[in-house]
Design brief:
The structure holds 2 protein chains of 2 kinds. By secondary structure, chain A is mainly alpha-helical. Chain A is about 65% helix and about 5% strand. In chain A, strands 1-2 form a two-stranded antiparallel ribbon. In chain A, helix 2 crosses helix 12 and helix 11 runs antiparallel to helix 12. Chain B is an all-alpha fold. Helices cover about 65% and strands about 0% of the residues of chain B. Chain B is built from 13 helices and no strands. In chain B, helix 3 packs across helix 13, helix 4 packs across helix 8 and helix 9 packs across helix 10. The two termini of chain B are about 20 Å apart. The chains are: A mainly alpha, B mainly alpha.
Chain lengths: ~350, ~300
């Protein structure tokens, strides 16, 4: 494989003629020379479709968002004057923007925390010597194949304030109808429920896989030492799946901060409720761009959200590497040969596929 | 170089080469569980309740979708379907261009899947098995971009589509998702261990060209991972909502945007909306029963690689 350096005139290689087998550059046939270019160029040829397309349709629009945000840009009239950071100033002084950010965070917390807690418990239940293992795993994953739009429609019906299934049901026990749509917290809970319904089982399977990679003998020796099931769960299982757990949190953050379908469809006539009580940031972006037709401000919102997501991702990354690092030394009785691999965590399956 | 290892630490490091059958990535542990003791009644009870919770919303849509709106006003919800299903289906077909939407969704998801899997396998193979200048740096770039929410570039993308005159065309939905960084990363992780370097060298010695080696050595080895990537790419293209909503109009929708139109009127007939939800779920339900195992192993393999 040393032949990868280009064949130069003999004079140029004179300082180090012994390094190379002499036949490398003299007796090449046409075919061999073609083969050499084949070896050199092919890798670039194979990766170029990805980089060219990704640059054009992924990266460029994202960066150009910043450019648009510096202009007075109307959906119909097109590009206007350069106004510097005026759009950012306007957005940062806009209480609807902050309202949307608060709603997004609230919905995100209401969906991610119960979801993760349930997913861990479900994973632990599945991580047993079950009969009909595949059946139970499939039953947990079933909601994932219901699309977010269908989930939103179904739950919007169930959370209907007047005739909804849930309020009807509660009414039988003398509980007053809960204003799922008109009040802030109930609406956030309703939307978070939609997210939780679709993603809990999915995350449970990721965590289940992590639990199954914990070597059995650790559990066995702990049990011999008298540790009960709960004790083993807290001291062995939880620490070992921590990296995966953090990864799940990161992907949930990136997806959760861009939530759109659920709040959009929860009330189809408004963009996030009469009083914007469940308007998320992406929903506000959408309203700004396609109802107020202000592409400049919408781009500013998009760019600010981008910065926030990147910042949270970066903090998560730092936390991950720190915990992942201390994890390796603190592992109880882990086999040395295996510990390194355990830092490998969940994939971006979800991230790549949610949107 | 530290950057490489640190970034890689946050994500799976390697494909599971030790288990040749990708469906059973963790056979060694004998079915999971702490011990071989069979779990008791309580476990199955909890799982049964979970199953009910997961199935009920879908079942509820079948019940409402086969009745009329009056079913909603009773104190105790009806548990069994009524006889109105086909009438409601007819109403759905009248209100939205259902077959067109279904066709559009199939074309869009199909083209995106083929493109993502093809380009991801090519690039993933190059990153996993070929030596070239800048390989590590470019791979770090790919991993980093996985964490970037490129969906937030929708405004310039919309301006671009408008300039090209593509708004309203399904091409505008296809083009922005032709490649994904995740796909490249996924294929790279799988191929890096699954193909022995000797196999590639042997093919080269036998006189195969680079592309011939890719086709005859890499693609057959990559097939299981390609299947999983196809499944997930198809799912995500199928469920996408925001972007199709922006660039397509009501006359040429995808299944998801058409479905959302059912609810857009001020007076909402829920039995029709939920019939639509049922109809739109059926294709994925079929896929789930055919390929559910692969879906599960894909999620679980992705979770613990190496």
């Amino acid at each position: 494989m040393t032949t990868t350096t280009t064949p130069a005139p003999p004079a140029a290689t004179a300082p180090q003629p012994e390094r190379k087998p002499p036949l490398a550059f003299t007796g090449l046939t046409r075919r061999q020379r073609l083969g050499k270019w084949d070896v050199k160029l092919s890798p670039y040829l194979y990766i170029s479709p990805f980089f060219i397309l990704f640059g054009l349709i992924g990266l460029f629009p994202l960066l150009y968002t910043f450019v648009v945000s510096l202009y007075d840009w109307h959906l119909l009239k097109g590009q206007g004057d350069f106004i510097g950071f005026d759009n950012f100033v306007a957005v940062l002084g806009d209480r609807f923007f902050w309202n949307s950010l608060g709603n997004t965070l609230s919905i995100f917390l209401l969906s991610s925390i119960p979801q993760l807690a349930c997913a861990i418990v479900i994973a632990a239940i599945l991580d047993q010597h079950l009969r009909a293992k595949t059946f139970w795993r499939m039953s947990v994953l079933l909601p994932y194949i219901v699309t977010p739009v269908a989930v939103s429609l179904i739950f919007t019906n169930m959370f209907n304030e007047q005739y909804g299934l849930i309020n009807n049901f509660l009414g039988n026990f003398g509980i007053d109808a809960i204003p799922w749509k008109t009040e802030t917290l109930p609406s956030h809970i309703a939307i978070a429920t939609m997210v939780n319904f679709r993603w809990t089982g999915y995350n449970a399977l990721i965590l289940l896989a992590a639990m199954q990679s914990v070597p059995r003998d650790i559990h066995e020796s702990a049990a011999l030492d008298g540790a009960g099931a709960i004790r083993r769960f807290l001291s062995i299982t939880i620490p070992s799946i921590k990296p995966t757990l953090i990864f799940v949190i990161i992907t949930a953050t990136i997806g959760g901060l861009q939530i759109f379908s659920e709040p959009r469809l929860f009330d189809p006539v408004t963009a996030g409720g009469n009083a914007r009580q469940f308007q998320t940031t992406v929903l506000y972006l959408w309203e700004m761009a396609f109802f107020r037709l202000d592409f400049g401000k919408a781009s500013a919102i998009a760019f600010l959200l981008f910065l926030i997501i990147m910042a949270i991702g970066f903090v998560n990354f730092l936390v991950t590497t720190r915990i992942g690092g201390s994890e390796r030394t603190a592992k109880p009785g882990g086999k040395i040969g295996r510990t390194g691999t355990r830092t490998g965590t969940g994939t971006g399956t979800r991230k790549g596929l949610t949107k | 170089m530290t950057a490489t290892t640190e970034v890689a630490a946050a994500v799976p490091l390697a494909a599971p080469p030790t288990s040749p059958d990708p469906r059973k990535p963790r056979l060694r542990r004998g079915g999971g569980g702490t011990f071989d003791r069979r779990p008791g009644f309580l476990t199955y009870g909890i799982l049964g309740v979970l199953l009910l919770i997961n199935v009920y919303p879908l079942w509820w849509s079948v019940v409402v979708g086969s009745r009329n709106n009056q079913a909603l006003s009773s104190d105790w919800p009806p548990l069994l379907p009524g006889g109105n299903f086909w009438i409601n289906v007819g109403e759905v077909m009248d209100s939205i261009p259902f077959w067109k939407a279904l066709g559009n969704s199939l074309i869009i998801s199909g083209v995106i899947t083929v493109s993502v899997v093809l380009f991801s396998t090519l690039a993933g193979y190059a990153f996993a098995k070929l030596k070239f200048k800048g390989r590590n740096g470019l791979m770090v770039f790919v991993i980093t971009t996985m964490a970037i929410p490129t969906q937030l570039g929708i405004i310039p993308l919309f301006i671009l589509m408008k300039q090209w005159g593509w708004t309203g065309e399904i091409g505008a939905v296809i083009v922005p998702t032709l490649v994904t960084a995740f796909g490249v990363f996924f294929m790279r992780q799988y191929l890096v261990d699954v193909i022995p370097d000797e196999l590639i060298e042997a093919a080269r010695v036998d006189g195969a060209s680079m592309i011939g080696t890719f086709w005859h050595v890499a693609v057959p080895a990559a097939r299981p991972a390609m299947a999983i990537l196809s499944l997930f790419t198809f799912m995500s293209a199928w469920t996408d909502f925001l972007w199709p909503l922006l660039v397509l109009d009501a006359t040429n929708p995808t299944l998801q945007t058409a479905l959302s139109q059912l609810q857009s009127a001020r007076y909402v007939d829920f039995s029709i909306v939920l019939t639509g939800a049922v109809l739109s779920t059926l294709p994925l339900l079929i896929l789930f029963f055919v390929a559910g195992r692969q879906l599960i192993s894909g999620i679980m393999q992705g979770a613990v690689k190496g």
